[in-house]
Amino acid sequence: MEVLVGNEHGLHARPAARLVGLVNGFDAAVTLTDLDTGRGPVDAGSLSMVATLNAQQGHRLRVGASGPEAAAALAAIEQLAKQNFGDEPAGSANVPVPAAVSAGGSGLDVAIGPAVLAGDAADLDGYVAGDNEPGRLEDALRTAADDLQVLRDGSAEHGGIFEAHLALLTDRKVLDAVRTAISGGESAPVAWKQVYDELASTFEALDDAYQRERAQDVRAVRDRVLRALTGTSTEEAPADGILVVPELDAATAATLDATRIAGIAVRAAGTTGHGVIVARSRGIPLITGIGDVAVPAGTTVAFDARTGSFELAPDEQAVRATIAERVGERRRALEEADQPAVTRDGRTIDVLVNVGVLQDAVDVRGADGSGLVRTEVLFGDRRTAPTVDEQAETFRAIARALGGKPITIRTWDVGGDKPLPFLPQAAEANPFLGERGLRVFRHRPDLLRDQLEAVRRTAAETPVHVMFPMVTTADEVDWALEELGPRDGLEVGIMVEVPAAALRVATLARDLDFVSIGTNDLTQYTTAADRTNAAVAPLADGLDPAVLQLIDHVARTAGVRVAVCGDLASDPQSAVLLAALGVTELSAVGPQVPLVKARLRQADLGLIDTAAVLAARDAAQVRGLL
Ligand code: PEP
Ligand code: MG
């Protein structure tokens, strides 16, 4: 039989897992051959084989089957292929407001609760192999399958993910490899881990960035079974626990139940990764860089992100007192949130909110609009590009939620650590220095044009600004303005995130209305420290005087309105410094907006010795001066 691969990303991990799960339900041997690449035949009952066949959209597959239930298997596969292997068909998704994302975090930067370990590799050291390792493996597989079924049936949102995880448990080839390793003398967990690590690497080596990310699914299943084998408790967070994770990816941060956890402690350092940004925008207290301190599951831990402290067995009374103090501070800030932020020396600073999901705009208090709508985050879960109408509808909803105040829509900022499922990108040795942001759309102007059309439609009804990310040269600005066409009152700007753009901002801004400094990227490019690499996180400090000198240069020479929408603007103390340097608009994560405003009201910008700050030796000295 021949079937067509209709899915946007081809037979990537999840549809492949569905196919494999289906095949393994029949008493039949099924093979697949990609007629367009000539690869195959491969065993269709093995996920590792099917996914790495790497069949792309539009490819034709020859499906062969033999055995007692061959005909039934073929019929079922034909049906599944017709349904895009369970992927959502192109253009069928609704306005993307992930229901799982909601506020609920306290926004206090301080938390106390029992430690919940997640994502930590299960500790295999204490495991003692017995004489029935195959039996233990089967028990663990059953436990994992039972848990996954409960998760699948209980989650309309994420059911598909757990369905795919279930299928990953039943990969014949992979299970054979595990069983062979066990009969060769390995313990069940060691055998299981080896084989699944290898499978994850296979995914990581694929061409398509979206497919590569699916290695996360493999690792999640690997860890679930390892936890079952070693008797480590599952990852379900008890109410008010503190989640301790090695790293925080954006998907996890977006789907965590913020009403069930008190905070997140991330072992890796760094505050500008997108997972951290998402968690902070949801008001979840979060500390990064706690390192590899041993945290026994269930012990009471506490942290204060403002002072950078993380404690095991803390003085509960002292922590509760800090929490009470912060609650008071927040209450006062919220009471005045709707008042403008006027400094003591009479300067008005606009404080806006960064929006990654509609909920950010709904939950915020006191924002003077949005200074950054991250469109690639807004539509980041889409497998197909949103239509002009869908985009315009979402932008309108954001503007409505902000009471019709101006919103600044940033065009697709794909690349780096933000893959867009509907815009596959080739692997790059240095993605942050590669095709990122505006650079990508020189080859895909169609996607940019659609977005600009959606921006224009929204602008006809409500105040809208548009800005382009990752700009380096004047040619890029000219090209973007040409693509935009007539401005019709639309305010147009660029992000300043590349040192070259900061240094020649006057040239780049000649035909613009504003520039907005992305301090997250400006910091990583100035300090040459990858924002996602924990090992160099201490270098990537937004208060490094070198970064501040560039901001100062931009504020003095741009000749147009200067905003900051990077996360430095979310820190009340740094926000005051930015204002003193001449920045008149700050865009912060929602929960920080009232606090930034409150702090600005207490400040006399004329008293801040910016010269001393700019001449400081390092970020630590800047903090001391502040
Ligand atoms: C920045 O780089 O500071 C910024 C605001 O953009 P993003 O964090 O989305 O890269
Ligand atoms: Mg950026």
Description:
- This protein has 626 residues and is an alpha/beta fold.
- It contains 26 helices and 19 strands.
- The chain has four domains: 2-93, HPr-like (Histidine-containing Protein, Chain: A, 2-Layer Sandwich); 96-119 and 235-330, Glucose Oxidase, domain 1, CATH 3.50.30.10; 133-230, Enzyme I, Chain A, domain 2 (Orthogonal Bundle), CATH 1.10.274.10; 336-625, TIM Barrel.
- Helix content is 42%, strand content 15%.
- Helix 7 packs antiparallel against helix 9 (215-230).
- It is globular, with a radius of gyration of 26 Å.
- Residues 469, 497, 518, 520-521 line the site of magnesium ion (MG).
- Phosphoenolpyruvate is lined by residues 372, 374, 413, 497, 518-521, 565-566.
Tell me roughly what share of residues is in helical segments.
40-55%
Number of domains: 4
**Rg calculated over all Cα atoms:** 26 Å
How many strands appear in the DSSP assignment? 19
The total of helices stands at 26
Task: Name the CATH superfamily classification of the largest domain.
Answer: Phosphoenolpyruvate-binding domains
Global mean pLDDT: 88
Strand content: 5-15%
Bound molecules: phosphoenolpyruvate, magnesium ion
What's the assembly state of these chains? Answer: single chain
Report the major sheet: 8 strands, parallel, barrel
Taken from the alpha-carbon principal axes, the silhouette is globular
- Cα(first) to Cα(last) distance is 71 Å
Class of the largest domain in CATH? Answer: Alpha Beta
CATH topology of the largest domain: TIM Barrel
